[in-house]
Amino acid sequence: xxxxxxxxxxxxxxxxxxxxxxxxxxxxxxxxxxxxxxxxxxxxxxxxxxxxxxxxxxxxxxxxxxxxxxxxxxxxxxxxxxxxxxxxxxxxxxxxxxxxxxxxxxxxxxxxxxxxxxxxxxxxxxxxxxxxxxxxxxxxxxxxxxxxxxxxxxxxxxxxxxxxxxxxxxxxxxxxxxxxxxxxxxxxxxxxxxxxxxxxxxxxxxxxxxxxxxxxxxxxxxxxxxxxxxxxxxxxxxxxxxxxxxxxxxxxxxxxxxxxxxxxxxxxxxxxxxxxxxxxxxxxxxxxxxxxxxxxxxxxxxxxxxxxxxxxxxxxxxxxxxxxxxxxxxxxxxxxxxxxxxxxxxxxxxxxxxxxxxxxxxxxxxxxxxxxxxxxxxxxxxxxxxxxxxxxxxxxxxxxxxxxxxxxxxxxxxxxxxxxxxxxxxxxxxxxxxxxxxxxxxxxxx
Length: 446
Description:
Blueprint: H1 13-23, E1 36-42, E2 56-60, E3 63-68, H2 71-74, E4 77-84, E5 87-94, E6 110-114, E7 117-122, E8 134-140, E9 147-154, E10 165-168, E11 172-177, E12 191-198, E13 201-204, E14 222-226, E15 236-241, E16 254-261, E17 264-271, E18 286-288, E19 292-297, E20 311-316, E21 323-328, E22 342-348, E23 351-358, E24 372-378, E25 385-391, E26 406-410, E27 413-418, E28 431-437, H3 439-442
Antiparallel strand pairs: 1-28, 2-3, 3-4, 4-5, 6-7, 7-8, 8-9, 10-11, 11-12, 12-13, 14-15, 15-16, 16-17, 18-19, 19-20, 20-21, 22-23, 23-24, 24-25, 26-27, 27-28
């Protein structure tokens, strides 16, 4: 099972639909007004074979949290980096608590940090049921600046993979378990578990499944929370169900939007591709802001001719009335690139920056599956998005690095994981590439 990495986003309908149709193919043409440059490369303190450092990344304020789920025979490790100036320095190392330290559990396969809250998934942990999964909650100590374990939790259902995806804000946490079947739901329908933080403590809330629930839908495979600003309560979340579809047409995929109101969380909308095709897997990844929702389809064909290259569909509006806006493709889309496997969104002023990962994208004609992340911005023309930049390892790219298996951004920085990158002669050790926005270029100097 591949993991979906998710983080909190901070910061009329017919016309929108028409513009989306008109500009759906224009989203593969460049409008280069923004550039990002390599700042640094992070590795484990002592790189080890098959650590897969960078399998998951999450950034908030001056913190970057990196998962290496392959360390110690797959028990997993999480590394915390703190920014000083433009330098990201290792400040802490986390392991699963001793009572659930288990080979093959993959602690750190998913994670999310926001402010003082950190949640880490261990989706393959075997509790009383094989592959049931577990999640650890951490809280940052205001004095030491380090994250301390608050508690761990799970859901004992075989193959439930509790913690397959996670998201967190100042007051809410979401845990995806795409293999869980809640009471009355079909097999592998999936579920999202909700936790609320209040008066210095977390408490569990009712779990959700998609309505209607679908057999094999994998609801909760991806998650994204929107909080209006750092430290405030989240108001909306999106959950992907890439296996969703009518009987005999699974894997079309859908994205479900939930809104927080007086009665708590409630499903407000279902979203799907403009032209659904079986096998696209829409909802493999998700991102959300106050007025937009994005869903990734890793097996979507590129209009430029690349098969199963992947796409991202954007929706504009408000909870309950999001409408199709545009479909985004990479300019240099290669077949089977899995564009849309990872996503991260950051709102800079009024401009949302969308970073989309394609971990199987080729670098040139000879370096296969090296991976790349693509930067998109909305354009002045309503309903149009345009690619701004392509982030890669450039001439240092090596086949099967899988850069952009994970991506997370905050402010001027974006962290992009390459979990299969060789470090020295150590195979699959993994690296995280840090990029910074080129403000000189943005000012018109090239």
